């Protein structure tokens, strides 16, 4: 059957005759196929795809000004309308009346969608033809997407919020303020408690002095930053711990 299907095109019908040594041999199989049987198949090719196929991107509208392009780590808002090749509607943001929002490159959508949304500018519209292995695979999605479905998405990029450099969850917009530890330790007890830490970081963000990675929960990021500084895990950061971490130049260092 493998050999009989090589070179067939979509829509084509073929009769494939398979001799026993390329089918079930002298033994046969089950109760229906006796030994040494010649098998004759009538086949019609409905559709096929190749695992090396990529997402096919067609730009359907490009704004005159199209300089700022999406990249990994950006928080983006977009509209989509997703159908099967025969036009069957799978899902559309327009039916919810709001955009779909993701961090690009964070595996929040199928790989083909992620590819199709890269290097796109606000206002741009594209049509994405996504092969099954970059969409919902051989299994599909129960009651929604059949197995091995090629997906067709119309997408429109609505907004980009620029992400941080890869690996960073917080960055300073300018120089790191001197006397940082003392500034964070509001009550001056020689330790930075979680609330002091959180207040300080949020203050920097609100004042435009620092930036958190967009599209993630701010308090979760700050919690992680705190744990990272609190070397011995006792729930507070001493000046000594703070210095040690700063020397290591970790990614979301202060
Ligand atoms: Ca304190
Ligand atoms: Ca500690």
UniProtKB/TrEMBL annotation:
Residues 180-207, 217-252 form the EF-hand domain. It catalyses: [protein]-peptidylproline (omega=180) = [protein]-peptidylproline (omega=0). Coiled coil: none annotated. InterPro entries: EF-hand-dom_pair, EF_Hand_1_Ca_BS, EF_hand_dom, FKBP-like_isomerase, PPIase_dom_sf, PPIase_FKBP_dom. Transmembrane segments: none annotated. CDD domains: EFh. Its EC number is 5.2.1.8. GO terms for molecular function: isomerase activity. The keyword Calcium applies. Residues 1-49, 73-161 form the PPIase FKBP-type domain. Signal peptide: none annotated. It comes from the Eukaryota. Pfam families: EF-hand_5 (PF13202), FKBP_C (PF00254). Keywords: Calcium, Isomerase, Metal-binding, Repeat, Rotamase. This is peptidylprolyl isomerase. It comes from Ameca splendens. The gene is FKBP9_1.
């Amino acid at each position: 059957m493998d050999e009989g299907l090589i070179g067939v095109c979509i829509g084509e019908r073929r009769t494939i005759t398979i001799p026993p040594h390329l089918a079930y041999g002298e033994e046969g199989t089950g109760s229906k196929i006796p030994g040494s049987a010649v098998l004759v198949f009538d086949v019609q090719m409905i559709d096929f795809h190749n695992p090396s196929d990529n997402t096919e991107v067609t730009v359907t509208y490009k704004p005159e000004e199209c300089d700022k392009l999406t990249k990994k780590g950006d928080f983006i808002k977009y509209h989509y309308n997703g159908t099967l090749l025969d036009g069957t509607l799978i899902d559309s943001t327009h039916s919810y009346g709001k955009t779909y929002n993701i961090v690009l490159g964070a595996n929040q959508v199928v790989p083909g969608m992620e590819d199709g949304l890269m290097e796109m500018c606000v206002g741009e519209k594209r049509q994405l033809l996504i092969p099954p292995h970059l969409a919902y695979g051989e299994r599909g999605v129960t009651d929604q997407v059949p197995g091995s479905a090629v997906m067709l998405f119309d997408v429109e990029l609505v907004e980009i919020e620029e992400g941080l450099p890869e690996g960073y969850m917080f960055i300073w917009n300018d120089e790191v303020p001197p006397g940082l530890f003392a500034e964070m330790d509001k009550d001056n007890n020689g330790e930075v408690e979680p609330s002091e830490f959180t207040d300080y970081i949020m203050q920097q963000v609100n004042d435009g002095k620092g930036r958190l990675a967009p599209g993630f929960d701010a308090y979760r990021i700050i919690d992680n930053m705190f744990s990272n500084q609190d070397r011995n895990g006792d729930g507070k950061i001493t000046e000594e711990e703070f210095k040690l971490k700063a020397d290591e130049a970790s990614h979301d260092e202060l």
